[in-house]
């Protein structure tokens, strides 16, 4: 089961980098093979929505992280095998006078396949790997492939031994003609292992925590010390949402850190649904059916839609998904910023109240409109948090530390005056 999400959410969270800026994918990508990188990318594109599947993957990666396991293959070995195995054998569709591989390529390919078979068997037969219960299915499959009677001669070959022309030819027929499918299947398991070990290494180095997945519908999202993994000097925050609290209403002045906090929480929820470790000190969450964020929503000029109408369509999309009974994690940064303050306040209050009635979903809404928060205070299903600003003379300072309540901090004019904009406009240089 896959977590429902969309391109807007993936872009909001910066899952994949753009214009020389690293994405979340890049932070976790320590893969050694192209196949492993492709598997990892697919995991990022398709988070899970099954507690069992999430916990299963998480358990595998966590055990490898504790063992500090290294990828047991040289990248060059995998490259040589891929180049070799993708070409048809001499008895295949390619005629001898159309060979894509030289004799040297074939010999290198044969030796690479032999080494991979030997190392795969050695890896899965290690006591440490045998102790990873969640990896048992993959381990047994690799063991069955490498233990196939057809590959028995490969285990009699010694490393660095030269093979005769006759032996190379015999192995070539075995690997590229008779058992090509099994070699390709073994490579797929190796790619999966590469992805697991990549994430495990990141978890070890960065001290990321493995979240605990809870059943759908339990309505829990508990985060301790959550921060954005791309920050060099992050400030961790705590957020606790229980079964009776569906909505968080977040306030704070410009530059106080609201958008960064929303991305921090949303990234943790997204990555947790992949079964991956997150940038926090502790986390437990109820598994959701889907996740949608609206942090950097562009105008849809292609259909002549204003920013406000784009926001309306976004809320409509969420409402449609909710009407189908799905459990969703939803984030709106500055809801209805594209219209006047009065309309924005009324719409924010109405939509927030409607969201509060959805017991199995979770919503975080940030807003500059303090009055909307005041109107929502009587609703017990809504929690209120803010990111404070402290004034040091005329200089605003930001703690980036979440606090309970509503703030009416407004420092826009202070910043404008500090930058000297009004003076420039009043006294232009000749």
UniProtKB/TrEMBL annotation:
<dbReference type="GO" id="GO:0006298">
    <property type="term" value="P:mismatch repair"/>
</dbReference>
<dbReference type="GO" id="GO:0005524">
    <property type="term" value="F:ATP binding"/>
</dbReference>
<dbReference type="Pfam" id="PF00488">
    <property type="entry name" value="MutS_V"/>
</dbReference>
<dbReference type="InterPro" id="IPR036187">
    <property type="entry name" value="DNA_mismatch_repair_MutS_sf"/>
</dbReference>
<keyword id="KW-0547">Nucleotide-binding</keyword>
<dbReference type="InterPro" id="IPR027417">
    <property type="entry name" value="P-loop_NTPase"/>
</dbReference>
<keyword id="KW-0067">ATP-binding</keyword>
<feature type="domain" description="DNA mismatch repair proteins mutS family">
    <location>
        <begin position="245"/>
        <end position="426"/>
    </location>
</feature>
<dbReference type="GO" id="GO:0140664">
    <property type="term" value="F:ATP-dependent DNA damage sensor activity"/>
</dbReference>
<dbReference type="InterPro" id="IPR045076">
    <property type="entry name" value="MutS"/>
</dbReference>
<dbReference type="GO" id="GO:0030983">
    <property type="term" value="F:mismatched DNA binding"/>
</dbReference>
<protein>
    <submittedName>
        <fullName>DNA mismatch repair protein</fullName>
    </submittedName>
</protein>
<keyword id="KW-0238">DNA-binding</keyword>
<dbReference type="InterPro" id="IPR000432">
    <property type="entry name" value="DNA_mismatch_repair_MutS_C"/>
</dbReference>
């Amino acid at each position: 089961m896959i977590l429902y999400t969309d391109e807007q959410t993936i872009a909001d969270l910066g899952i994949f980098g753009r214009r020389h800026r690293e994405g979340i994918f890049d932070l976790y990508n320590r893969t050694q093979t192209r196949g492993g990188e492709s598997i990892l990318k697919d995991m990022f594109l398709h988070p899970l929505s099954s507690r069992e599947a999430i916990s299963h993957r998480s358990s595998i990666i966590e055990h490898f992280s504790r063992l500090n396991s290294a990828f047991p293959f040289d990248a060059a070995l995998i490259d040589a095998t891929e180049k070799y195995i993708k070409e048809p054998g001499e008895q295949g569709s390619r005629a001898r006078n159309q060979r894509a591989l030289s004799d040297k390529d074939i010999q290198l390919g044969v030796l690479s396949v032999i080494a991979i078979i030997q190392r795969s068997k050695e890896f899965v037969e290690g006591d440490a790997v045998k102790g990873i219960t969640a990896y048992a299915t993959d381990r047994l499959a690799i063991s069955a492939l490498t233990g196939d009677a057809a590959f028995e001669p490969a285990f009699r070959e010694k490393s660095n031994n030269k093979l005769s022309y006759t032996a190379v030819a015999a192995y070539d027929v075995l690997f590229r003609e008779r058992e090509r499918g099994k070699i390709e299947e073994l490579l797929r398991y190796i790619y999966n292992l590469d992805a697991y070990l990549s994430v495990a290494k990141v978890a070890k180095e960065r001290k990321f925590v493995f979240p605990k997945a809870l059943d759908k519908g339990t309505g829990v999202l508990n985060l301790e010390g959550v921060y954005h993994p791309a920050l060099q000097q992050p400030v961790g925050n705590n957020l606790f949402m229980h079964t009776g609290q569906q909505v968080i209403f977040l306030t704070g002045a410009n530059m106080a850190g609201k958008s960064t906090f929303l991305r921090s929480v949303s990234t943790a929820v997204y990555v947790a649904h992949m079964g991956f470790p997150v940038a926090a000190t502790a986390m437990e969450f109820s598994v959701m059916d889907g996740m949608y964020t609206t942090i950097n929503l562009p105008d849809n000029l292609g259909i002549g839609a204003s920013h406000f109408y784009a926001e309306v369509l976004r809320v409509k999309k969420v409402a449609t998904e909710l009407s189908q009974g799905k459990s969703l994690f939803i984030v709106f940064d500055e809801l209805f910023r594209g219209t006047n303050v009065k309309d924005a306040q009324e719409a924010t209050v109405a939509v927030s109240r409607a969201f509060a009635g959805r017991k199995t979903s979770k919503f975080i809404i940030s807003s500059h409109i303090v009055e909307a928060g005041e109107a929502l205070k009587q609703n017990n299903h809504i929690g209120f948090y803010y990111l404070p600003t402290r004034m040091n003379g005329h200089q605003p300072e930001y703690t980036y530390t979440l606090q309970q309540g509503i703030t009416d901090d407004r420092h826009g004019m202070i910043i404008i005056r500090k930058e000297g904009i009004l003076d420039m406009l009043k006294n232009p240089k000749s």
